[in-house]
Amino acid sequence: MLVLRLLLRWPVVVLYRLCPPGTQALIDADVARWFEVFSWGSTSTEGGLVRLFGHRTHEFRNVFYYRLDRTSTVFKALSHLVRRFYPGERTLFVRADEIGPGLFIQHGFATTIGARKIGRNCWINQQVTIGHVYDRGAPVIGDDVTISAGAIVAGGVTIGDGARIGANTTVVKDVPPGAVAVGAGMRLLNQPGAPSLGEKTV
Question: Which of 9, 29, 31, 172 yields a CA-CA distance of 20 to 30 A from 59?
Fold first, then answer.
């Protein structure tokens, strides 16, 4: 079965092997991160690509194609050719200027990722909008940030390392490192003077 999977997905492995070392390192980290989240243990990147490209959800494919598209014009053309046979999630759009290693996207349908920069090991859920606002720029998102379902992060805001954006939250200002932003009006929790997640507010 593994040999059959490898035969069916050999173009993906070949593209990875042809990538320059910097792109390979990013893909290595992405594969390792997805295996960690899925509790699949460890694997080689080639074996990980074969398994992830066969997974019932296709969000990893979008991340892989993003890496290829950012490598060169040649790899972008090859990426668009391969995705005809191995399509990604069709309503997931990854257009950020820079994304660090280890991006994980869960249930990524109806999601647009258009940040200026995203750090390492970030987690993004479904129906999220991250994007540019005219005359206000695009978001900068730190390392280990979680953005939950239905959240909107728009304009030139900065999301600090380790911050969490709650479901259906609209981010209208900077979020400090380690803070939790919740609600349409964006309350900040887990910072000095703010209620903790377990406290009730009036």
Answer: 172
